[in-house]
Amino acid sequence: xxxxxxxxxxxxIAVGKTFIVHLDExxxxxxxVDEKDVEAEVxxxxxxxxxxxxxxxxxxxxLAGPSETVSRELLDAYILLLDDIVLVKQAEQHIRDRYYxxxxxxxxxxxxxxxxxxxxxxxxxxxxxxxxxxxGSRIIQNLLGTVHVSYDEMxxxxxxxxxxxxxxxxxxxxxxxxxxxxxxxxxRTSHTAIMxxxxxxxxxxxxxxxxxxxxxxxxxxxxxxxxxxxxNPDAETLAEFEERRRAHEKELERKTALAELPAKTxxxxxxxxxxxxxxxxxxxxxxxxxxxGIGLYRTEFLFMNRDDVPSEDEQxxxxxxxxxxxxxxxxxxxxxxxxxxxxxxxxxxxxxxxPYLGLRAIRFCLERPEVFLTQLRAILRASAYGKIKVMxxxxxxxxxxxxxxxxxxxxxxxxxxxxxxxxxxxxVGIMIEVPSAAVTADVLARHCDFFSIGTNDLxxxxxxxxxxxxxxxxxxxxxxxAVIRLIYAASDAAHKNGIWIGVCGEIxxxxxxxxxxxxxxxxxxxxxxxxxxDIKETIRRIRYSDARVIAEEAINKATTEELVEYxxxxxxxxxxxxxxxxxxxxxx
Length: 588
Ligand code: PEP
Ligand code: MG
Description:
By secondary structure, this protein is α/β, with parallel strands linked by helices. The chain has helices spanning 38-62, 69-82, 85-98, 102-118, 123-144, 167-172, 191-198, 235-256, 284-289, 312-326, 362-367, 369-382, 398-418, 435-439, 441-445, 455-463, 481-496, 511-519, 532-540, 544-554, 560-573, and strands at residues 2-5, 7-10, 13-21, 158-162, 178-183, 203-205, 219-223, 228-231, 272-277, 294-298, 330-334, 387-392, 427-432, 450-453, 500-503, 524-527. It has an eight-stranded mixed beta sheet. Strands 9-10-11-12-13-14-15-16 form an eight-stranded parallel barrel, surrounded by five helices. It has 21 helices and 16 strands. The protein is globular, with a radius of gyration of 25 Å. The longest helix is centred in the N-terminal third of the chain and has 25 residues, at 38-62. The site of magnesium ion (MG) has 5 residues, from helix 16.
């Protein structure tokens, strides 16, 4: 029995057999393309080579120190392999002559080359065979747009264990068969953790070293509340986990009974409590947990795990389904937020040294207006059927908001001339998740209809702490005074300009934050559906008048420690025990 301590990322208790995901194992089926598509397939292959090459170049840049020479040499060798004329020609020939898909052409070329290398005695060539496999896997990953793993062998109630699970991978795991997730990297606000919560699967991330101690088929028990992971637990531990699982189920049942009740404080302050969703499969959870609509629909998930870009019609159908399901409440559709930790290779975005500070979200959309315009047209068409608002992510400057709105106006003009219905008064809002936006919120408020604060990013950009990095998770502090002051600046600007303001970051899963933010008179909180009952319970147990007094003092605290201590004291004073909220009142 081995015990690991990770970061609790999604609530719940799970016990099951391990299913280990190695992201370098690729499963490519023999797929053929039509004769007329052959040249496009060759172009796709060449694009993938380019993307792979720039990824290797970025990796090589990162390895700056003198001790890294060996790895740098390895990456040089990889880059040379990508330029190998024989291999490239062979793959292209397989596409042209045999009509292989680009992925399958790479795989077959790889197998052909590996056979030749295998027959060589020289250990140097044997090593090159390993390199070749690595390079080939990378090209295939880039062609697939995701690291595709076969889950055919995965049994029911499996616990998926991986070093890392990109959000797209998490989204592709068959949820009916997964009991839990354990990863070695990541944090609570990484998109993988967010995805685990949205599909309601218990998860522990940042459990470093776990893959070295675990074999496929081992039994693993995980506690999504505390971050404890036990490999091959003894009978006593198993019984303890089982007891916790039953207690959690009972508690969840009790809390879901709150679904019918409004999110209203004792003294009558009614706040909208909405759901963040990633995929339409989550729509059931809206009624189950009693959400007041959708406060954030992360549309980029519709673009994941596929080779193509969803058409306007496909997007329109999905947005319409989502918005209709949320009625009579509204749905905030966020335009795609890719970049950062979410990649879509079918859009041919080249690798960047600092993806969180790069061509992400609105920046990408303004750079690629054909993608943006298609999405805006689909959102607008769906707005004829539900109460849709549109929101731009990662606004850092007024010019981006103005440019985004110009594209909305252009989409409206087009639809009008085509006679397609839409809501001409659709509200356009922005996420406040970059410090520059919070600081200039008074300016931005005059140009949009609403704000929604994205604390997941606001925290990382304010304190310069990458949100998904478990090594610095201790620095990721929602109660850092700088974060609270920026939130206050945004809410103050919204109120002074008479616009609606919500929060859709994970901060609202912390009960102390619920109190503080209520005190700043927010109109809405939006969170993963599973977090809604806890937030509602907190809201229903406090007085708005108390929250206001608490918030007024909280925004003036000098340090995180001071603020946390103050909030703990106040929470106890108003009768909220620490355990409220599945994350408790911990600092992060
Ligand atoms: C946020 O940044 O807080 C947010 C809600 O958006 P995302 O988590 O998708 O970046
Ligand atoms: Mg964000």
